[in-house]
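Q: What structure does this chain adopt?
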Amino acid sequence: MSKVLVLYYSSYGHIETMAQAMAEGARSAGASVDLKRVPETVPLEVAKSAHFKLEQAAPVASVAELEGFDAIIIGCPTRFGRMLGQMASFLDQAGGLWARGALNGKVGGAFTSSATQHGGQEVTLFSIITNLMHFGMTIVGLPYSYQGQMSLDEIVGGSPYGATTIAGGQGQRQPSAIELDGARFQGKLIAQTANKLFGA
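A:
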């Protein structure tokens, strides 16, 4: 059984919900899954005044834990078309793992959210994937075999590079059934890939 880490940052709960769906998908493939978040870097008073969702069930991860997993799935919102600072700060501390090749050959994937349909989702996914490739990881996206992402019947996230959701300018839109199913599909595919690579 492969060990999968779903590592996320979520200011308002949208990515937290997507992360939970990603974990469900990975578990459905028989993987052992940990759901963790990265530390908040915004000062507490600023986070409170911006109404961040500060209480989340997932424990805070440490960089040292990463090498203990066969697959790592990273999710965070977009910030101006790229990975946001909290996740970047966390990954920037993984230089020691990179130097030792500790993540070489592991499976990786990415997911994200944005306020609008054209808010930089794919560039943000690539900014996450770029980090994972520098770590030597094998990338698994959300292939078009998940056909929900091609729907023209409603506003929907999704990309061949990873699952996504659209939150709305005020965070008023929650992940849809299609978007959550996309996250489950990708999580399952990542776990299946890890199972094959690591002999589970």
